[in-house]
Amino acid sequence: MDPPAAKRSRGYPAGPEEGDAGAGAVRGRGRPEALLDLSAKRVAESWAFEQVEERFSRVPEPVQKRIVFWSFPRSEREICMYSSLGYQSPEGEHDARVPFTRGLHLLQSGAVDRVLQVGFHLSGNIREPGGPGEPERLYHVSISFDRCKITSVSCGCDNRDLFYCAHVVALSLYRIRHARQVELRLPISETLSQMNRDQLQKFVQYLISAHHTEVLPTAQRLADEILLLGSEINLVHGAPDPTAGAGIEDANCWHLDEEQIQEQVKQLLSNGGYYGASQQLRSMFCKVREMLRMRDSNGARMLILMTEQFLQDPRLALWQQQGAGMTDKCRQLWDELGALWVCVVLSPHCKPEERASWLQLLGKWDKLDVCPLEEGNYSFDRPSLQPTMALSPGPEEEEEMVAAGSRHTVFGRALQAGSLHWSDTHLQRILASDCYGPSLTGHMGSDKPTFDPQGRPLWLGEPFPTACARVDTLRAHGYPRQALRLAGAIVNTLRLQRRHQLESYKQQKKELLQKGSTCITNTEGWVGHPLDPIGCLCRALLEACRLEEETLALYPDSGPEKRKVAYQHVPVPGSPGESYLALALEVTLLGLGQQRALPEGLYAQDKVVRNEEQLLTLLEEVELDERLVQVLRKQAGLLLEGGPFSGFGEVLFRESVPMHTCARYLFTALLPHDPDLAYRLALRAMRLPVLETALPAGEPHPNPLDSVLSNRFPRWFILGHLETRQCELASSMLTAAKGDPKWLHAVLGSIQQNIHSPSLLFKLAQDACKTATPASAPPDTTLLGIALELGLQVMRMTLSTMTWRRREMVRWLVSCATEIGPQALMNIMQNWYSLFTPVEAATIVAVTGTTHATLLRLQLDAPRREELWACARTLALQCAMKDPQNCALPALTLCEKNHAAFEAAYQIVLDAAAGGLGHAHLFTVARYMEHRGLPLRAYKLATLALAQLSIAFNQDSHPAVNDVLWACSLSHSLGRHELSAIVPLIIRSIHCAPMLSDILRRWTLSAPGLGPLGARRAAKPLGTDRAPLCQLLDAAVAAYINTSHSRLTHISPRHYGDFIEFLGKARETFLLAPDGHLQFAQFLENLKQTYKGKKKLMLLVRERFG
To answer: What residues contact 304, with CB distance under 8 A and at least 6 apart?
Structure first.
């Protein structure tokens, strides 16, 4: 810190000491305040004490004391502002660690003592209780002040925080609340001037003695300098006095720890990914707004410090290098920073040099490469508010306008605000009076109207967002009444503009309706705009109607929980029958219902959604009475008739922002009062034009998303969110329309026409079914039918695309049809071709529709039950014919209890076998037939499967091995005839030697026909020397020989052992023949001669087999 400036000498005599230092501080109720105190208050607020001394040659001591007394801050609001951040924990609990709260508690507990005010310096001790087992802690606090502002603080706690510690708060509140109990002395220089040389020497020596360890070196240095003639200290007139107050040239502002603010912002930005960090940074922005509202110059100082730290965030350069966008939380903080700078630069009371310095800083920041750009394609030179508004240029012209724009950073609008002023005479008169009306000239010499036909003031000539930024600025700088007056003039202008827009639309209505489309009238939407114009107007108007406790407004951190906001009607001066609350509702609906193009960029689009939800949250806090309901009805009607200027108009631009969220609010609010209007508005808002294709009406969409892919503006990043909001609107209407067939069918038609997402349609169907079947009331059949119809539409939409949720959807559809009745269930069975795949129909629809639980639920008599079964069997047979590979077995299973149907299903399988039905499926059906006690049919299907099968010599682990062994076992159990018939199939299909050998051994264990399925006969096992086994033996031997030669062609030494084992198994098969020993010997000799080069292998063969 800089050393204190040298003060003037106090050489004049002082008057008699005042007996009561606090006299006149507080007067009893009804007693007039002394003229001395009234004068001292004004002087203490606006004059530095040095200016008082220079103006008057001698100021009496009582007057000095009253000025010094009244120079301390008198309001606790500023103390609270500088000792609380305004941040509440995410859990919403009251944070007892807030310095103001702690300081208030210390004051109330009597922790403040030894308070002394010497001139413009206040000191005192704060005794703070220690923790369990800890001693009491004593802190010495010093506060300097000037012109009712604390200029510096010092506390023994060495607390490093943004604002004042609890001990400074306790001492300050003590001085404000108990002013008469504080011992008051004039500045120390006044006391010293009354002492003679001996008294001064004694004073200095006693002071040094009391603090010799701290001040002795300094005292000696000062004494040496004073004794040295010509030293710098002797050239200065007078001496510094820290208790004498500020000089004329000294800045007069509250103490702000700039270094700590910078450090805190830097730390919070480094933790930017955490919710708490973003909240605390927003709280600091709120603190800036609070300072601006108190017209405290520290607001701009604090914002400058924060901005510098934001620009030094290392993530900015990293994001720029990577070409990646910043996080949403960080983007929102930058947006708020830019909006705050607009409020600062546009200040109605700042000095020109202050504004120039801010603009210089902004210009420097704006040129930095890391400075973030403003998101979206919002223009900086949009047309001004005009009483009339023609239809806008086409999209191509708009693109050219946007493309022509230059680089705009988040500070661009603040720089633009630097060219605005408040000197317009018409604007000043609007701000000055609630009763401003037209003059005799009417137009005040201007070429634009200044009043509407009703004589209410208008504000024209600048863009609507800019005009609303003025309103926000007035509120931010503590001019709520002026902000309200300007907001009213802007609303008057919007009304007049809308009136002319409707007249313009009526003249072109026929042409626009014939075209069926329109160019967008507002490429720059007001909802989601960087300046948030609708939010500024709405909050300014609502603020005037808000009912709030004074204590809550004074101490924002003292409330343990968030109270519900209440509003009342406040009349608008000069407009009988109107209230600011009604205006807030009207202007918000006007902005939300504006037809506008979706901005470019993911964040800008997300901001549109977020801003819309914020505005609706404000409206939902307002309880609707009869007056507001009338406003709702009128605005809803105007939105429906607004043509291309309204998002609810008859004709929409393809790229316009949907109205689903706004419509849901209006539908809910209007439904109890005007159901017809509520439904008309909501049904009109169901549209989502960007998903509509150019196909003629009635033709199906090849793919619901084709229109998006072919769209020449493929930039709808939030399309999924918008579709979800559309679904929520539809769900609200379906739920509300329960029991009303007229509106139910209207809603259904709108859903089928406008919703293109199968998953959302399915959710609507589920919600409708759930609503239609309450647990304690009879079902709503109409709503159930609509749920079923939506489910059928989902089935048709996803039949060709197939999603992982299809099985869930099919099961739900069957259960929904069951709730309606057997006819609905049979209808979906009879029309399954357009709804389900054969597998779904056969395995889910037919099966689920005929389960015991379903039949019990339907409570059918015998004829109706048989009718349902017949329908299911017909479905199963049709599926089997369509897809025998996957549906034959389910069809057979379903038709078991009906002989004719079963035979038909069996014949389908036989026909499919001829048409190429795979062996695996034939074996599966064959095993099913065996399980059902039909061995001959099983044998028939097994032979058909074997005819299609081919197992090579090296396929020992072929998937069909077990099926083949099962088929051989089945034929053996049926008898010799069946076995003889299957042997040629086995020989033709199987070339694997071990497998043939295994089959041969199994058949030689017992006589044919002795199995569980065959008739028992007194016969011996078959021999391998006679048919049919001799053919199988020859095939097995030949397979072993062929396989051996094949393996030896590319054998490696590590496989020699496996080959020897293979020969061992071959020998066992050879020996089954009468001359098998000779055959095997000849085989080995042939191998030795043919592969004599493989000496090691042949040696192993000789060792094992001779």
So the answer is: 361
Q: Which amino acid is at 130?
A: G
Tell me whether residue 611 is exposed, middle or buried, using C-beta atoms within 10 angstroms of its C-beta: 0 to 12, 13 to 18, 19 or more: buried
Give the Å distances, CA to CA, from 539 to 341, 497, 1069.
19, 22, 98
Helix axes 480-515, 425-432, angle to 10 degrees: 120
Phi, psi of 766 (to 5 degrees): -65, -45
Among 243, 249, 255, 251, smallest CA distance to 64 is for: 243
Q: Is the previous residue joined to 217 through a cis bond, with omega within 30 degrees of 0?
A: no
* Mean pLDDT value across the chain: 82
Mean pLDDT to the nearest integer, 946-957: 88
Q: Based on the number of CB atoms within 10 Å of its own CB, is 80 exposed (0-12), middle (13-18) or buried (19 or more)?
A: buried
Residue 644 near residue 521, CB atoms below 8 Å: yes
Residues 570, 584 contacting (CB under 8 angstroms): no
- pLDDT over 90 for what percent of the chain? 39
Identity (one letter) of the amino acid at 827? N
pLDDT of 1068 higher than 90: no
DSSP 251-280: -------HHHHHHHHHHHHHTTTSHHHHHH
3-class state of residue 885 by DSSP = helix
Asked if 678 and 746 count as a contact pair (C-beta separation under 8 A), the reply is no
In angstroms and rounded to an integer, the radius of gyration of the C-alpha atoms of the chain is: 47
Buried b / exposed e over 248-269, threshold 16 CB at 10 Å, is: eeeeeebbbbeeebeebbeebb
333-347 confidence digits (pLDDT tens): 999 999 999 999 999
Pick the closest to residue 346 from 289, 407, 419, 406 (CA basis): 419
Structure tokens at 985: 């199939």
Of 430, 411, 422, nearest to 372 (Cα)? 411
Residue 566: enclosing H or E segment and its boundaries?
Answer: strand 566-567
Q: Are 150 and 82 in contact (CB under 8 A)?
A: yes
Q: Using a CB cutoff of 8 Å and minimum separation of 24, what contacts does 666-675 make?
A: 666/589, 666/632, 666/636, 667/729, 667/732, 667/733, 667/736, 668/732, 669/624, 669/629, 669/632, 670/629, 670/632, 670/633, 670/636, 671/736, 673/629, 673/632, 673/633, 674/633, 675/743
Instruction: Give 864-910 pLDDT, tens digit per residue.
Output: 999 999 999 999 999 999 999 999 999 999 999 999 999 999 999 99
Q: What is the pLDDT of residue 782?
A: 94
Residue 727 phi/psi, 5-degree rounding, is -65, -40
Task: Name the phi and psi angles at 125, rounded to 5.
Answer: -110, 145
CA–CA dist 128, 119 (Å, integer): 27
For residue 167, the tally of other CB atoms under 10 A from its CB is: 28
Residue 1032 · residue 1023 · CB < 8 Å: no
DSSP state string for 385-423: P-S--PPPPPHHHHHHHHHT----BTTHHHHHHTT--S-
What's the Cα-to-Cα distance from 98 to each of 103, 294, 1089, rounded to whole Å? 9, 21, 102
Residues 611, 39: Cα–Cα separation, whole Å: 50
Distance of alpha carbon 681 from alpha carbon 666, whole angstroms: 8
Residue 398 in tokens = 């708009």
pLDDT at residue 523, as a whole number: 65
